[in-house]
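Go through this chain.

——
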Amino acid sequence: MWHGPFRVAKTVDRHAVRLETAGTEYRLFPIVHVSKLKLVKSYPERSTSTLTNHDADRVDFDEGLLPEDSWERELEEEEYEVERIADVRSSKKTRYGRTRREYLVFWKGYDEPSWVDELDLNCGALLRDFDRGRTDRNRFEAMQSHEE
């Protein structure tokens, strides 16, 4: 079991370091053996130069470098754009016991919605917004039921 992350304050000797534990809720002896440390992130090519911020020289990245429609991805053949997601249902279980979900999807340019497996959808933002809205509604309904 790992605790932390902590900064190494200083090296005590060849095999021990002192950790910065002040301001944390951990109650542990601050000197630990180096074999008990685990690197959180490694930055092999960390920059050593300092960036300065000059508002006069600042250019908005979108305005200065990107064309107007560069963020719109071209649809490939046999790929359709999702207009909105209306509903969700549980479908069959995988062989590992995970329940797959299907979403009722309205497609741009088409009238009829269709049920689509979650793995076949490529609209992460719409999925996140739909799931968040569902969760928020469920929480609100739960709060209302407790008031009654």
